[in-house]
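=== RUN LOG ===
request id: a7f3
mode: sequence -> structure
chains: 1
length: 93
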Amino acid sequence: MCGNHANGHRLDTISRLQVIQPAAATVCHGGQPCQAQWLDDGQEPLLTAMGPCYVALYAGNEELIQQIEPVDVSTTDSLTFTPSPNAGPNSNT
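=== RESULT ===
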């Protein structure tokens, strides 16, 4: 969810954020830093107009694993986070 949207839509429904890292084959290990990076596809609404967005780590069938600190997508295109080593089992789905 992004701060500029009061109706609480998820980011993927209100903006065309394209995640480029981690890629599908990327492995992030609990307790070790992992980087997420994204691009704006240039269609409205632009990320420069979005502001702070909530970020979370999901596995499998969109199971919430870990809430990550909000990030201002209007001023940055990446974040580094540390997955919790207690987040759950490995997932390849």
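=== NOTES ===
The first strand starts at residue 17 and ends at 21.
The chain has one helix and five strands.
=== END ===
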